[in-house]
Amino acid sequence: MAGTLDRLSGRSNDDWVAADLEYVVHPSAPADGERLVVVDGHGCTLVGADGREYLDVHAGAWLVQAGHGRTEIADAVQRQLSGVAHFSLLLGVTNEPAIALAEKLISLAPEGFGKVRFCTSGSEADDEAIQLVRYYHAARGAISRTKIITLQGAYHGRTTAGTALSKRDVPGLPHVLGADTVLQVPAPTAYRNVCPEGRDLVDFCIAELERTIAEAGAENIAAMFGEPMQGPAGMIPLPADYWPRVQEVLRRNGILMVMDEVVTAFGRSGEWLQSTALGLTPDLILTAKGLASGYMPIGALLLSNEFAAGTEGVHGSGSYGGHAASCAAALANIDILEREDLLQNAKHRGAQLQRELSEMLERDVVGDVHG
Question: Does residue 335 surpass a pLDDT of 60?
């Protein structure tokens, strides 16, 4: 089956691959490596310009929750683009899809949440959150609260600040947050366990968090950023009691809690938000990826009422934040997830996948199976 681009141009697969190698940069991929030119898709199936069909086990990049070829989402985008494509939210102008989406997102958020800030990606959401948590404390006179805690193995985006949050060593990349601003603590991962023998894993990690706070001084720490399940680190689930215990420690020390749900939200974990399933009430929840199933670029920061009141008027969003067509795509996507009960399906298929993959543990070369 030929895809749209192939039909229009008449180019062969080899022609497309040659042009890609000549002109397109693929971050993290070899410059002269293999290329799959995708020209069509239906559900979980992708069609390449080579005429072959492929199972999209990566879901685009953990984001095509509703599957490829959903005409309902495409139609919603087309209807919006046929009228008002977009007008920036920066100056008080708004649009109906953005309002409706914000209302819907708050209905899915934990109790006490009341506002939404829009952006265009998960990386942008993390970057904006850094600015907001520092502003929140500075506005209250706590200007020393600038440090941020993250977990070892964390991933919080590809921006310079997000990379600094993750403490990833990129040659030549400056420490824009300050070399000693990001404080990393052990993650409670059962495989490759860093816990001393004889100690409870979660107890050890909570003690390390408290020790780090005491050494740095709570009065110098703005927030802790964390993924409910560590994504790029290996889709590592954390013990169910870990984040609730972390939340208690942070509250006691006046430190904000930012849950990075760019990967886990909108069904990837079988929940709208994994924070809610864990009983958490963080100050911010960061989302993107599955919000519009990748049909349009969009991200959203969900803010608790208290945090929203303390950061009102702070510059953000950018030219494309709350893009009308992106918000229309997100609304259509959420409708599909609800109507087809895809969150429950994710739970069933996740359990099936874990059950069948666990048989691989019988092989000596397999150390663990998780997800």
Answer: yes
pLDDT, tens digit, 9 for 90 and up, residues 293-325: 999 999 999 999 999 999 987 877 788 999 999
Backbone phi and psi for residue 70, each to the nearest 5 degrees, phi listed first: -80, 105
pLDDT tens for 193-213 read 888 888 999 999 999 999 999
In sequence order, what are the residues at sequence separation of 6 or more whose Cβ sits closer than 8 angstroms to the Cβ of residue 168?
none
Query: Over the stretch 169-186, which tens digit does the pLDDT of each residue have?
Result: 666 666 677 778 999 999
CB 39 within 8 Å of CB 3: yes
Please state the three-class secondary structure of the chain as a single string.
Answer: CCCHHHHHHCCCHHHHHHHHHHHCCCCCCCCCCCCCCEEEEEECEEEECCCCEEECCCHHHHCCCCCECCHHHHHHHHHHHCCCCCCCHHHCCCCHHHHHHHHHHHHHCCCCEEEEEEECCHHHHHHHHHHHHHHHHHCCCCCCCCEEEEECCCCCCCCHHHHHHCCCCCCCCCCCCCCCCEEEECCCCCCCCCCCCCCCHHHHHHHHHHHHHHHHCHHHEEEEEECCEECCCCCEECCCCHHHHHHHHHHHCCCEEEEECCCCCCCCCCCCCHHHHCCCCCCEEEECHHHCCCCCCCEEEEEEHHHHHHCCCCCCCCCCCCCHHHHHHHHHHHHHHHHCCHHHHHHHHHHHHHHHHHHHHHCCCCCCCCC
- Torsion of the alpha carbons at 181, 186, 188 and 189, rounded to the nearest 10: 110
Answer yes or no: pTM beyond 0.90: yes
Q: Band of the pLDDT at 144, cuts 50, 70, 90?
A: very high
For the record, the structure tokens of 33 come out as 């490596």
